[in-house]
Fold:
Amino acid sequence: MKHFSLLFLFIIFLSCESPFATKPTEGDVFEVTQDYDGEKIYHPTAVIIEWSNITIKNFKEFLVERSITIGDSTVWEERARILDSLSTVYTDTIDDDATFQYRVQIVDKDDQFIVAHSEPLIVPNVQALRVPNDYENPQNAFDSKFIDDGDTVKIYPGLYQGHFEFMDKDAVIRAITIPEITLFGADVGLGSVVKMNRGILEGHTIIDGYALSSGAIVNFGNVSILNTVVWKNGGEIDYRLYPRSATYTDSDEFRVQSGTGNINTDPFFENPSNGNFHLKSDSPCINAGNTDSIYNNSNGSRNDMGIYGGPYGDDW
Structure:
């Protein structure tokens, strides 16, 4: 009788668990890049994100995420899930003056992943936007994420019609002094020309509004109104400006003259019905504007109220 011995050999492999069970193609390096050139931007701008073309088993998706850092706060958010295993590019839009960064995960069907990050994308700070140079409409410029507390919306000459709501930002809405008048006029329908709860409104003419509380300007908080003419507006209650808690300084036609330098009288425009809002020689707005010497007229006299006052008021 023959005896047979059966030898059982047990081979035990001991290894550490990998965070990503699906191995990429041997020799591949997973990298992520972005094409932003570092220039200052004023509008939402496209940025192209690219990653290495590598192959994995049991592919599920690419997960594209973006962080935004403002001050000490960093928040990550999902931007896209891409199911095409051959994809290597994604186009995103940046719309703020902040620091961004991208990361891309390759995820397999067991939800294991590998991840790579782009270099930080630092958008230079924007302190002012110009209307209509950067944005055609004052509201769109103000609403842009590029305008933050302390920034300025510079309004160039022209008539801008609408029911503007400059809310929740401590920004400055300032008319510049160049060869035109700068007016905010009511659009079609009832409503105040301007509503604000923070910030400064400076150097405009506000016309043609009609609303229950005020056809011209409604203050919902802490607002300063400087060197401004408010004319031909209507309403049931304080039809020029409402309520009385705003700071009105060197401004014309306020029913409540609670601020320094305010007047309530006809500004004596040259020919307003034909769009000529220059001041007549006997206008009460002449030499009645801001007393600070930096606002003086070009002849050294005190600033005139309205957009034609100031150091560049007679440059045309």
In short: The chain has two domains: 32-122, 128-295.
